[in-house]
Write the structure tokens for this entry.
Amino acid sequence: MAPRPTRHRVALVIALVGLAVSGVILDVDRRLATQTGYTSFCNMGGVVNCDAVLSSRYGTFLDMPVALWAGVAFAAGVLAAIPGAFLGIYGGLADLILIALASGALGFSAVLAAIMATVLHYACLLCLTLDVVVIAWFLTVLPLARNFHAAPGVAWLRRRVAAHATAAVALAVALAGGTFAAVRSPAPADTVADVEARDPQFARQYVKLPVLPLRDVVRPDAPSKGPVNAPVTIVEFSDFECPACGQAFKDLHDLLRARNDVRLVFRHFPLDSSCNEAISRTVHVDACLAAAAAECAQAQNRFWEYHDLLFQHQKTLDRESLFRYAREAGLDIPTFRTCLDDPMTRDRVGADVRAGIAAGIESTPTLFINGRRVSGALERMYYDYALILEKAQGATASGRP
């Protein structure tokens, strides 16, 4: 039976859809890089945060946006599908290119999806949409290998084994290349010039982030650690149930242990509608209760010990567990119970929430580094980069309380 153009035409349409989605992502990426304070429609708070994913170092590959690479691949796929879709040419070089592009796209998408789930702890709906397009493209294109001859007597290029080998090699190369780029850590830096050389995109985007006076985001009695007169103050609005906040907890703990030039201030922003009026639906059911319990630990001068226990047990923050952690932290339990049931405790959490809303917070964690608003957790090395840039900027020193 002679091959039909249907599959090529479907592959062409899917590639056009992928090209369109890549264009939308590129536009969001451009706005994030150039517009101060821009928040995309795909930043919905909680774990759904395209901005945090696209602004991370995983949003680029070889110093070019990943969405641009995707757009180039889909554009090439459109061209490769045309001979089969409209000219009746099957089983040749164009089909091999189409198979290679779809297979490589699948491998790279798999790496990026794994990074979102295991490293960033954020979901980018635009990226996931592109992943679905890639999967559909691969499933449509791979059967084109049947258009190649199985007989050993034909030229190697037109043998079916060439098509299968092309798919396997493209998939393996994409997986290997994407994984290598992901695990390669940014190099340490000592100066602004080093930061700009190591990651020019981060340096450009960071200095464009909106800045508030620190007095607008620091509560005078908020728990803090590090030198009061440190040249850099990080105010963290966080949620004890938030996975990305858990990663930020580990990295900030390491940062403060390694450096004596930074102060950390903690404030609450639970993604729980029972104490956060900005949340239309509860994302983390025990977040408000955990925040209140942390306030009660603060009242007994045990905030940081209790804070660490909450982040170490993020998945079990029910009332009974909160009392268990209170005992582990050495708190007076009757006093803790009275405090936890006191409406004024929730009011203090609510004050942090209202301050966060006024400061433009839409997701957790949100950090104010010398007043510069950073939405989402940074990777460990980028905290050092930010400190270098802040010391050079010195833009908000007068706003420090």
Q: What stands out?
A: Residues 395-401 have pLDDT under 50 and may be disordered. Residues 192-399 form a domain with the Glutaredoxin fold (CATH 3.40.30.10). Residues 73 and 101 are 6 Å apart (CA to CA). Strands lie at 43-45, 48-49, 60-61, 64-65, 224-225, 232-238, 262-268, 366-369, 372-375.
